[in-house]
Amino acid sequence: MDEIEIPPHFLCPISLQLMRDPVTISTGITYDRDSIEKWLFSCKHKACPVTKQVLHDSDLTPNHTLRRLIQAWCTLNASHGIERISTPKPPIDKTQIAKLLKGAKKFPEMQLKCLKRLKSITLEGERNRSCLEAAGAVEFLVSIIKSYDSTLLEVESNEGSEYIKASDEALSILYHIKVSESCLKSIISNDHEFVESVVQILKNGNYKSRAYATMLLKDIFEVADPIQLISVTPEFFAEIVRTLSDQISKQASKAALKLLVELCPWGRNRIKAVEGGAMFVLIELLLETSDKRACELALIVLDQLCGCAEGRAEFLKHGAGLAIVSKKIFRVSHVVSDRAVRILSSICRFSATSRVLQEMLQVGVVAKLCLVLQLDSSHKTKEKAREILKLHSRVWRNPSCIPSNLLCSYPSS
Questions:
Q1: Residue 362 contacts by C-beta under 8 Å, 6 or more apart in sequence?
Q2: How far apart (Å, rounded) are the C-alpha atoms in residues 38 and 35?
């Protein structure tokens, strides 16, 4: 395909690739369906990519004439290795989905067939996902998840056929629809049982279902009200921590970390997270991972948890807590360095027993704080490091454990 020049008007203005399903928007510009659907429905853009005009509707009109020209051009150039583009299937509309859902609600034995069809519709394109939400598919899927339907459904995967619970498949489809913020708010506000149902899947589901449950809960609690954030149960925290501990997938782990970041500042959630085992799991995660974003999120949560006495006590129970937090300074990012110094500040101000102060000296925390004063750090981080060193100068100043090149930066009392 590189050997022959493609007519410019056959190329999508977004992807710059040959259009397979050209559609025209209200500004008169034609794009490939996949590209413009991602632009409008996934990226939530409201303007035409070429003209920058605001779009008052997202209607996509198939450009049959251009498609036929592209197909004819492909046929003429088949000898150059260009494959003919097949005629695309017409996109599904809201009426068809509503009819499918009505049949499944009226005849329960049709539910499994309906789930299979909904999954294929979801995977066919961005526009279909918006149609599914508008047609009421979200409410249908929520009802199946709440029923915790254990009926087995045969589904195709990369490894071949497998059998999964109807409720697990409904959860997978719901996650892939990428439900709008307003719809997510409606679910959590009007249906208090739904979150509990998803927690049960977290507790009893397979690894794949638990991953989808975690990622969906992350999306839900990002738009939740303060009352809903405060009222999260201890069981919820225990299951999120277990998901993090099991390391189901990188995506699920980051979703679990983001959930903890979102929830911990509210009410007694820090204590619930600590009681759920979060502190130990977070420190173990820091010991094992080299992923920058995972380290940043873990340090943010640790900083939040060290804001309560229970959190600091659990932090100090872990033999590697002080060492790994200190080690991460200057090794990952400015965010990690700032949060690590904040954690050390919390420990030094509120939990600094003589044993803790000696451990900080032995594992290199004091030397690292001196280094913070010498190297490129934010003003606030340097001030915190200076405060810590001044606070315990009677114990730490002039010890043999601090190299002379760092000891010279130790602040005077």
A1: 401
A2: 5
